[in-house]
Amino acid sequence: MAKTATGAGAGADVGVVAALSTSGEEFLSWLAVEKGRARNTVVSYRRDLVVYEAFLSSRQRTLDDADPALVEDYLAAQRAGGLGPASVARAQAAVRGLHRFRVEEGWSSTDPSADIRPPGPARRLPKALSEEETERLIGAAAGDDPAARRDRAILEVLYGTGMRVSELAGLSLSDLGSETGLVRVLGKGSKERLVPLGRSAVGALDDWLAPGGRPGFTPRRWARRGDAEAVFLNARGGRLTRQGIWGVLKKRARAAGLEDKVHPHVLRHSCATHMLTHGADIRVVQELLGHVSIGTTQIYTKVSLDHLRQAYEAAHPRAGR
């Protein structure tokens, strides 16, 4: 049985499956089918909109009679409930998107969110490892058993390509170009891109795919369709999930003494930061990471400049320490 939201605050329990108004469900379907939004984005929007509709219900209002003041009250309630700037910005985007959709589809004649300006949340600088720390992390996956070979390949590919953990989990054997040195990556919004594999990543993948690696995790009978094509397998012979890859990162980070510094996208951030530090063109890094907007990539230039200043102040005799 589907659960619905029971409260109007930021922490309202939306349950496993949360019901929305008809226009809300139509909006989410439009986002997924027509706009090609990633599943995680649609799930996040659903969570935000369930809380929003519950908030309206607590005020004895509906989407049909929502007004700008009510939308402002909702956003203020989310801030007061402890949501961070980025989460509030996403909640506002979900509400604005829904009301705009309702007008465009003829569900409503007015958009109460039209004049509410999106907030400009402070963009947190991505936390990257140093090059020495990255080497330590990858080195923590030393060994010749299947698990060590797999984990080393995971770390090398994540760092070498800058791909997202979810993109790595979705890799299939057919995505690996044995002769071209390129890997096909399915990114956000089902957008494909080709990413080069460096020498270290290719070597680690070869070790994993060799007889002493992946075949050691291959089951006698595949449990699910698609597992046989998965590049990375778990010990039971199933496709390694995002959670499984995160488990690999945590395990190897503990061994390297880096547990407090490692998060799911740390190698993606480290790849971008180190490339820019070594002079890579920002548009090359944008293409590598699959960023739609170069503005998203530019945040890494701030990180690189910070590293440059730290190195300068530490080394130059007249840096004014």
Notable features of this structure?
321 residues, mainly alpha, DNA polymerase, domain 1, hpI Integrase, Chain A, 2 domains, two-stranded antiparallel sheet, 51% helix, globular, disordered N terminus
Could you explain the architecture of this structure?
- The protein folds into two domains: 1-121, DNA polymerase, domain 1 (Orthogonal Bundle); 131-315, Intergrase catalytic core (hpI Integrase, Chain A, Orthogonal Bundle), CATH 1.10.443.
- The protein has twelve helices and two strands, in the order H-H-H-H-H-H-H-E-E-H-H-H-H-H.
- The protein has helices spanning 22-33, 39-58, 68-80, 85-104, 131-139, 146-161, 165-169, 199-209, 242-256, 266-277, 282-289, 294-315; strands at residues 182-186, 192-196.
- Strands 1-2 form a two-stranded antiparallel sheet.
- Strand 1 and strand 2 form a beta hairpin.
- Helix 6 (146-161) crosses helix 10.
- The longest helix is centred in the C-terminal third of the chain and has 22 residues, at 294-315.
- The model is unreliable at 1-17 (pLDDT under 50).
List the helices and strands and how they pair.
Elements (H helix, E strand, L loop, with lengths): L21 H12 L5 H20 L9 H13 L4 H20 L26 H9 L6 H16 L3 H5 L12 E5 L5 E5 L2 H11 L32 H15 L9 H12 L4 H8 L4 H22 L6
Antiparallel strand pairs: 1-2
Helix pairs in contact: 1-2, 2-4, 3-4, 5-6, 5-9, 6-8, 6-10, 10-12, 11-12
